[in-house]
Design brief:
- It contains eight helices and nine strands.
- The protein has 240 residues and is an alpha+beta fold.
């Protein structure tokens, strides 16, 4: 399962990125029932004995700077990744590529959930729409989604989309400008974020399993309504 958000150019320094990242990690810890309390650098490659990265702004700022030492990072963006989890339940990887001033490649935050337990028994996977809501609240993306590999492939093939093109999976996040075009009556729950964005959850809080066909149909309706129009490139804004 993958949960991610994308946005246009938004120049931010490592300290600002760290503040957003702390909020996301705290939100994941609340949802994850103990699966997301200790975070380690991606370079440690599943080494449970590796020293953790402190889940505070100063610790994450230092890690972002360490992970992106290139002098052009303020232009191309800072790239960093952390992982957490427990062998018997789920591995969680959170990656960012954000903060630069280049206006050709979108910024992003990705939460990858690799479940080793029985399907439906892992809280983070079951509540992927809540993970998307937390990500949206912290990073303020232009759009975002939660999806499985099969769902992503089906939507991509149906509409011929590039990876950065707006779309929805089993849940979709629409920034306020996009949310204004969202039609009512789609087969899911509608939840507004504090900033006025919208999460449409086709799993209804994990209680339903939408078919690939229904996900494609929802994408078709959102596209027809104008909620999934691409940002103009080169990007001159972060959201629609």
């Amino acid at each position: 399962m993958v949960v991610h958000g994308l946005w246009g150019v938004r120049k931010e320094d490592p300290g600002q990125l760290a503040e957003r990242w702390v909020g996301l990690l705290e939100g994941l810890a609340e949802i994850g029932s103990g699966d997301c309390t200790t975070w380690r650098a991606a370079e440690s490659e599943d080494d449970m004995s590796a020293a953790p990265v402190e889940r505070v702004v100063s610790g994450l700022r230092a890690y972002v700077e360490q992970a992106s030492p290139e002098p052009d990072a303020p232009y191309i963006g800072y790239t960093a990744s952390l992982w957490s989890g427990r062998i018997e339940t789920v591995k969680v990887t959170v990656s960012i590529n954000a903060g630069g001033s280049a206006n050709r490649v979108p910024d992003s935050c990705v939460v990858a959930l690799e479940s080793t337990a029985a399907p439906g028994s892992v809280e983070l996977v079951n509540r992927s729409a809540d993970v998307l809501g937390v990500l949206a609240g912290c990073w303020g993306p232009d759009w975002g989604e939660a999806y499985s590999r099969e769902e992503f492939r089906a939507v991509k093939q149906e509409f011929g989309l590039r990876p950065s093109a707006p779309r929805g999976g089993r849940s979709v996040y629409l920034s306020p400008g996009r949310a204004a075009f969202a039609p009512g009556g789609l087969p899911g729950t509608y939840t507004r974020t504090a900033a006025g964005g919208l999460v449409i959850d086709l799993t209804r809080g994990g209680a339903a399993q939408p078919s690939v066909e229904s996900i494609v149909a929802v994408n078709r309706e959102l596209r027809a309504a104008g909620a999934l129009e691409p940002l103009p490139a080169p990007f001159d804004r972060d959201t629609f």
